Amino acid sequence: MRVFSTLAVAGLLRPLLEDAVFEPTARLVARIEAGETADLAFLTQEAVAALTARGLLVSGRDIARSFIGLAVQEGAPRPDIATVDALRATLLAAPSLAYSRAGASGIFFAGLIERLGIAAEVNAKATIIPQGFTAALAARGEVALAIQQVSELMAVEGVDLVGRLPEGANVGAVFSAAVFAGAQPGSEAALHRLLTAMGPAALEAAGLEAVQDR
Question: Against a cut of 0.90, is the pTM above it?
């Protein structure tokens, strides 16, 4: 059973899967549109809907919601991000930080610092990774702050999650699962087993929230 999965649910799926490709949704969509196939896909809700409309995926269903958070190296002081003003001050005061270029969190964060009027200052000291986990840089001490989906930050050892970005500076992303058109027999059943294993407790432990009527 081959699976394409966005990084946001990697921490949840890795213990359950043997053959999975973990990349940002945008990169996986590009691979699918170029003709690559698998059996199951875990992508953003929007991507699953678009690929289903084109007949590339079937049986899509929402599985989890994630929010953007901030992490620091394990044991480091935890900055104040309780309000939008506090977050703005923290971003300006930080000596360095990392966010992603291709992921939904990075795209949102790039827009956020523009809206806060601090894009030039933040980007001057930012490491913008093409893909992967920003928390890995914080764990190694290469940056002071890591910004990404909470579930992605929690997938990395050696960091402390400070928390979600505050209301007014955050967005919830819904992730969905689907079967590839032409998937091998048993894919529907495999998806059902995975969803059963991904109960509310497992989702919470991975930094995700269950969606209703899954």
Answer: no
